[in-house]
Amino acid sequence: MRIYQQLRKRTIQLWIGTCGGAMMSKRRVLNAHNTAIDSESPWRVTQRDWNWSYGYKTSVSEWQSLLARARSGDREAEWGVADRYADGCKDKRGGVIVKRSAAKAAQWFRRAAEHGSGPAQNSLGVLLGNGNGVRKNVKEALLWLRKAFRAGDTCAAQNIAITYRENGDLKTAFKWFRKAAETGDGDALIQLGIHYYWGKGVKRNPRAAVRCFRAATRVKNISGVGRDDAFFFLGIAYHEGRGVQASIPNAKKFFNQANIDSDHVAADKMLSKLGRKRDNY
Q1: Which ranges of the chain would DSSP assign to H, the alpha helix?
Q2: 90-116 per-position pLDDT tens digit
Q3: Torsion region of 56: left, alpha or beta (phi above 0 gives left; psi -120 to 50 gives alpha)
Q4: Cα(243)–Cα(234) distance, integer angstroms
Q5: Which residues contact residue 180 at a Cβ distance below 8 angstroms, ignoring those fewer than 6 apart?
Q6: Which H or E run includes 278?
Q7: Domain 170-281 indexed as CATH 3.30.420.40
Q8: Which of 5-14, 75-84, 146-155, 242-251 shows the lowest mean pLDDT across its residues?
């Protein structure tokens, strides 16, 4: 399911939603540095509203076969049914085979999770944490996410971190983002860098943050939008002169790399502030 980052959908609503982090009573923008980043929740820049609606294509007979196997207790089929209810499913002509249903998705993810499916445990944890299709239950969400992590689902570590962050425990969130990064999750490296850069749940350390952002631009296990975010935050560091020597040409270079497909809103705003003329790098 396209639930992970979150930022899975979660780190994004967060895909991650996602993930919006805990709502703050007051928002403060870093006007001193002339950036468009919320200093209370700087990770919001990485959140995007993905719409994976009806991404699956299948026939009626294929769906019925999958559903029959799921009803017989096949955990992989249970996960497949859950995922199709979550995203929706159409045939090749565009006819709807399976209507989207967060409630039915949650029911089938739970069945697969109870039968030991790590990905289903991760997905169920995300749904419980968001209250999507089920009553929100953070304690149970963390229980399933930890089970998924122990079962080897690498997405779970970042989702645990996001869950803690959304509920205000930034220190524990930082620890889990570090665990996620240690598994090779490039998107988690960006979140780790954000926490270092703004001192969220850890002592502020811009140099460590820059190392995280640079590493994220090079790792293989990272989403395309994640790599763009890594370039964006490097641009912020060069623009503000924190963790590196200030350099507007370098800042513009990294903002341009982040916005190479003209779809990074924050980078586009920074380029507008700095002027879009490319310098000779």
Answers
A1: 8-11, 60-71, 75-87, 102-114, 118-130, 138-150, 155-166, 170-182, 186-198, 206-218, 224-240, 248-258, 265-274
A2: 999 999 999 999 999 999 999 999 999
A3: beta
A4: 10
A5: 154, 157, 158, 161, 188, 191
A6: none
A7: no
A8: 5-14
How do residues 19-58 score in pLDDT, each as one tens digit?
322 222 222 223 334 456 888 899 988 877 655 577 889 9
The letter for the amino acid at 159 is N
Please name the residues in contact with 68: beta carbons below 8 A apart, sequence gap of 6 or more. Answer: none
Angle at 138 between CA 148 and CA 116, to 5 degrees: 25
Q: Who's near 217: CB < 8 A, 6+ residues apart? A: 227, 230, 231, 234
d(CA 232, CA 251): 8
Cβ–Cβ under 8 Å, residues 61 and 97: no
Please identify which residue in the block is written with the tokens 């294929």.
Answer: 62
Q: What are the two backbone dihedrals, phi and then psi, of residue 87, each rounded to the nearest 5 degrees?
A: -95, -25
Tokens of 154: 């690498």
Phi then psi for 63, rounded to 5 degrees?
-65, -45
DSSP per residue, 210-256: HHHHHHHHH-SSS-HHHHHHHHHHHHHHHHHTSSS---HHHHHHHHH
- DSSP bridge partners of 101: none
Q: How many CA atoms lie within 13 A of 152 on its CB side?
A: 2
Residue 36 phi/psi, 5-degree rounding, is -105, 35
Mean pLDDT for 217-227 is 94
Sign of the alpha-carbon dihedral angle for 172, 173, 178, 181: positive
CB atoms within 10 A of CB 22: 14
